[in-house]
Write a structure and sequence with these properties.
The chain has 255 residues and is of the alpha/beta class. The chain has a single domain (3-254), classed as Alpha/Beta hydrolase fold, catalytic domain (Rossmann fold). The chain is built from 10 helices and 7 strands. It has helices spanning 26-32, 57-65, 79-90, 120-132, 134-145, 152-162, 170-182, 209-218, 234-237, 239-254, and strands at residues 3-6, 10-15, 36-41, 72-77, 95-101, 196-201, 222-227. A 7-stranded mixed sheet has the order 1-3-2-4-5-6-7, sandwiched between helices.
């Protein structure tokens, strides 16, 4: 697995979302790297890791373990949050703190007992658009998620240069899409007893607020921060508030 390391200190592994790359984290990572060692990984078939085909969650767990970190924090955004949940469940002694950003245990509504996701047809349309024209769809998606941010134009310009030129491998997108549609990690949450920080926007259309509130109830040691006016990218649209929340959680836990 290809990855980038920034800073020194207590390690934190940051996992991006589906169809993305680790470059989406770069501004946030630089701030965190002032006090911690940051590992930015690219998931199989995405970003700089295009030569590796996506297989399943177990493959990603193996690759995270290959970083040879004995005790670290983990931050996952969107699909990356599901990976972080899965890893924390399987390797609890390795994880110091768990940060779940715009994450849900189950993206798609389930008949009968889960209505805190999105309808399958809406999710499939977004996914199919990404596969058909990744750059155009992603630019439209990012623009929508940054509405209301006073730095929207500046952020978008930077993302175009750093991020939107690195389209993921289509076969890996399709394989990992199956996980997004099938994953239901609700049953794992009560078994995770790691200090957890849930960070979400109240305007998120992909991950409804109810999903974050559900996780907050099921995780044993969790806190939740709702960024008012934020959508699926609170770490970009509400950077200062996001960093304050991150540092406050770290400081309170480390005391």
């Amino acid at each position: 697995m290809l990855y980038k390391v920034l800073g020194k200190g207590e390690p934190i592994v940051m996992i991006h979302g589906w169809a993305m790359t680790s470059e989406i984290w770069i501004d946030l990572a630089k701030k965190i790297a002032k006090t911690q060692q940051v590992f930015l990984i690219d998931l199989p078939g995405m970003g700089t890791n295009k030569n590796t085909q996506f297989i399943d969650m177990d493959q990603i767990n193996v690759e995270i373990n290959a970083l040879n970190l004995s005790h670290f924090s983990i931050m996952g955004w969107s699909f990356g949050g599901q990976i972080a949940i899965n890893y924390s469940y399987k390797f609890p002694k390795k994880i110091k703190k768990l940060f779940l950003v715009s994450t849900t245990p189950c993206f798609v509504n389930q008949i009968g007992d889960w209505h805190s996701g999105v309808e399958a047809n809406i999710f499939n349309k977004f996914a199919n658009d990404l596969i058909a024209d990744w750059q155009t769809t992603m630019e439209r998606f990012l623009n929508l998620q940054l509405l209301g941010s006073e730095y929207r134009k500046t952020i978008l310009k930077k993302l175009k240069l750093l991020f939107l030129k690195k389209a993921p491998d289509i076969d890996s997108l399709k394989k990992s899409l199956n996980l997004l549609l099938q994953n239901d990690l609700r049953y794992l949450l009560p078994y995770i007893d790691i200090p957890s920080m849930i960070m979400t926007g109240n305007l998120d259309k992909l991950v409804p607020l109810e999903a974050s509130e559900f996780m907050n109830k099921k995780l044993k040691f969790s806190k939740i921060k709702i960024f008012k006016g934020a959508a699926h990218l609170p770490f970009l649209s509400h950077m200062d508030d996001f960093m304050n929340t991150f540092h406050e959680f770290n400081e309170n836990y480390d005391k």
